[in-house]
Amino acid sequence: MDSQTASSGDISNFIVDLIEADIESGRFSGRVQTRFPPEPNGYLHVGHAKAICLNASIANNYSGVFNLRYDDTNPSTENMDFVAAIRDDLQWLLGEDIESEPLHTSQYFDRLYLWAEELIAKGKAYVDDQDGEKISEQRGGFQEPGIDSPFRNRSEEENLLLFREMRSGKFKDGECVLRAKISMNHDNMNMRDPIMYRIRHESHFRTGNEWCIYPTYDWAHGQSDAIEKVTHSLCSLEFDSHRELYDWFLDQLGIPESERPYQTEFARLNFTHTVLSKRLLKHLVEDKVVDGWDDPRMPTLSGFRKRGYPASAIRSFCEHIGVARTNGTHEIELLESFVRSDLNKSAERRMAVLNPLLVTITNWPEGYVEQRTAVNHPEEDSAGNRKIPFSGSLFIEQEDFMEDPVPKYYRLSPGREVRLRYGYFITCHAVVKDSDGNPIEILCTYDPETSGGKAPDGRKVKATIHWVSAEHALDGSVAQYDRLFSAEHPGEESGEPLDDLNLESKSILESAKFEPSIGDIVSGSVVQFERLGYFRLDEEVDLFFHRTVGLRDEWANILKRRKKH
Ligand code: ATP
Ligand code: MG
Q1: Residue where a domain terminates, one of 472, 496, 529
Q2: Would residue 529 count as lying in a domain?
Q3: Residue ranges around ligand 1 (CB below 6 Å)
Q4: Does 342 share its domain with 357?
Q5: Phi/psi of residue 300, nearest 5 degrees
Q6: DSSP SS3 for 137
Q7: If you average pLDDT over residues 184-208, what whole number do you get?
Q8: Is 326 domain-assigned?
Q9: How far is ligand 1, taken at its centre, from the CA of residue 46, in Å?
Q10: Among 32, 275, 309, 368, who pairs with 304 as Cys (CB 3.0-4.6 Å)?
Q11: pLDDT, tens digit, 9 for 90 and up, residues 141-153
């Protein structure tokens, strides 16, 4: 596969260089420990996959430790369903059980609380009675200093007392917050006395009603990494400007350099025709634009899994794009090409007709059924063969017949001969139509001499089409998917990505016909329907397939087009 454009990185990327330098210099005594820290307020998507693959592979390559840590600091948006789904999706993606139990930021609530008291005692944090709106008004802006809160100079004793009262439930939500006391004139806005604790009288899915104050992400994140002894804290670029704050907290708490997580930022993954903002994905689910987080059109890992994307294809993709320091957007066709080449190797071949049209072979011996042999995989002999019944009554695809063929249409039409895959040559000699003039049955003759797929006299046909025997066919349905967002960059024009939703992104074909051996396909696995593409058999609905990806390599076409320009 050719390399691609946006934020392309080499496998030996800058993060790997950094880790190797740290090992060499003996920093962290050669130890490597990474983590993936999702907030359990949604399902994992393909952007998270990039972060997971990066962190897991680094730990793996340097015999280090990789943990899943739920950053569960916001009781209003988090729940156990998300927690369970995140774990399942992560294991599916990595293809192995994570040995260690997942960790939770909420495990460290006591420790964080004591550390907050320590900062108060050192005069480095204060309780502010102003509301959120006021606080954000006073933050100032770029080159505009902020304003000190009137509560900024409370004594250590008063702050400690108030903070303990906050914790014991004396105040209502929003009545006060704990802020770090840094500087309201700092160039870095994140350093302008950021909030460390807010009051939330809400039950937390793990700690129940034990707490009514919750740490902010900024206060919890760096310390959680330090508690776990994470060495390399890898996160996406938007946290770049938070690093200074994380370091400030660690400085105040006196955590020595050698025990501090070292944060490095990398570019977020983005795709054309895709949104990866959790807020928007949540909206699609809650407003029932899609059928849930695992809808096959969603860029979530559970959506991909349901659609038939192999985890190995997503891992290879992530490895291929590497990491970069500048954000960029990848073409979704590139990911699809990884899915296609993975499935090309693993998927067994079968025949299916999605929009059936009846073909009657008028010279076929009445009632006779012949078992034809077909290979399950053209390159894998070990996949073996199967038998497909051939009879005088077959289904072909509606679009493989045209009564008045347009130029360059070589498939079936009156007087035209074509090859049936694994069958015989047939020639159309009549068309039966309904009262509206639509073909409902095609009458053909077959040539018994073409059993081996060739004519003994050497005559050629220009098309080979697929089929299934009508009386042996299994009936089922197929869901076809199109892009969820029709615009390449959703929201680019109007500023609202939802304006670019493709309202016809899903269609169900209810009268698909499958060759009988489709019954051998294990539910949940993907097959290639010859000439049609890759399809995954649903686990829950009988004989229901999801179209995973087509056969045509659109990525290759994009590259060709680019070369021309
Ligand atoms: P939120 O808007 O809720 O913060 P988020 O996508 O950042 O959404 P988190 O649960 O905080 O979600 O993400 C967990 C980790 O995944 C973070 O460390 C983040 O850097 C990383 N991550 C999230 N989205 C992407 C992305 N598109 N590409 C690469 N990494 C990502
Ligand atoms: Mg986040």
Answers
A1: 472
A2: yes
A3: 37-39, 41, 47-48, 50-51, 235-236, 268-269, 276, 278
A4: no
A5: -80, 160
A6: helix
A7: 97
A8: no
A9: 10
A10: 309
A11: 988 999 999 999 9
Which residue lies with its CA nearest to atom 16 of ligand 1? 48
Q: Would you say residue 41 has pLDDT above 50? A: yes
Ligand nearest to the CA of 39: 1
Per-residue confidence (pLDDT) for residue 430, from 0 to 100: 98
Tokens linked to 141? 């802006």
Q: Is the pLDDT of residue 317 over 50?
A: yes
Nearest-CA neighbor of 466 among 418, 500, 526?
Answer: 418
Higher pLDDT, 405 or 565: 405
DSSP 8-state class, residue 338: H
Measured from the Cα of 269, ligand 1's closest atom is: 28
Which range of residues forms the domain containing residue 373? Answer: 352-472
Ligand closest in space to the Cα of 282: 1
Same domain, yes or no: 454 and 484 = no
506 catalytic residue (yes or no) = no
pLDDT at residue 325 in the model: 81
Name the average pLDDT for the chain.
Answer: 94
The span from the CA of 423 to the CA of 401, in Å, is 17
Nearest ligand by distance to the CA of 37:
1
**Pair 340, 381 in one domain:** no
Give the three-state DSSP class for 428: strand
The preferred substitution site among 13, 34, 39, 217 for testing ligand 1, maximizing ligand atoms within 8 Å of CB, is 39
For the stretch 478-503, pLDDT in tens is 999 999 999 999 999 999 999 999 99
What is the number of domains present in the chain?
A: 3
